[in-house]
Amino acid sequence: xxxxxxxxxxxxxxxxxxxxxxxxxxxxxxxKGQSLLWQNPDLAGCIPNLxxxxxxxxxxxxxxxxxxxxxKTWIAPDKDWQRQAPYPVLDSGPYExxxxxxxxxxxxxxxxxxxxxxxxxxxxxxxxxxWQASHRVTNRGEQARTVGAWPVMMLKRPARVAxxxxxxxxxxxxxxxxxxxxxxxxxxxxxxxxxxQEFKVGLNSADGAVCIELHGRDHPIFLSARVPNHSTxxxxxxxxxxxxxxxxxxPYWEAEWHSPIEQLEPGGALDFVQEFxxxxxxxxAS
Length: 286
Hints:
The structure is a single chain. The chain is mainly beta. It has two helices and 21 strands. A ten-stranded antiparallel β-sheet has the order 6-7-8-9-21-17-16-11-14-13. Strands 5, 10, 12, 15, 18, 19 and 20 form a seven-stranded antiparallel β-sheet that branches. A four-stranded antiparallel β-sheet has the order 1-2-3-4, with no helix packed on it. The longest helix is centred in the last third of the chain and has 5 residues, at about 280-285.
């Protein structure tokens, strides 16, 4: 069976396409036949050689890893990565998988020889426009590790993002220039992702919610994403619970969520759950 074999979870107009063979990805979200996630055409059909990932074609050589596309679980903080790249077996390796009758797929990584961590990704289709993504990171090593789950979703342009920040919080530039693409008004942050421009900003959501407006064929489609509303003293590996990245080389951008960091003793695990819902104004009007 090819590493590119995909599996679909279907409910009415919504299809979640999963790709266990390349990093246990949610490869696409298809609504009414329209693809919402970005997949890298330069890497279509490439077979990952985990020892030679930097030899794969890329228009973004500043990043030392393949930009496959879709949605995956990284491990934070990135300062612990080797050679500025996510752990190869967790990001590009084949995951074991099982399909369950209740519209669920579970994809489980090998144990990473570098980090001694293992990732389990569970995606459950809940209804015709909603699903849940659960991320479990388990320490299979003999030493304690302080880590966070870091789900990263690569979406197509154009898009708009809205977040309400907690009192006293602000958007923080991580790298690049977000000039003209980020607007902060009081507690509200909006981002217009409408051109090739590289930057990343860090944000916190006051209520754990992020609203994303995506370009539909005839009208906008909204993606609502929620995570547990963390306590005010929660600590994140990169300082924020959400990061927004925009590419200057490809027509995609990233919505990146962070779980609070935890110290995992040997055998310990952390769980991070996300709730997603597509909101279609045309469906609501009917």
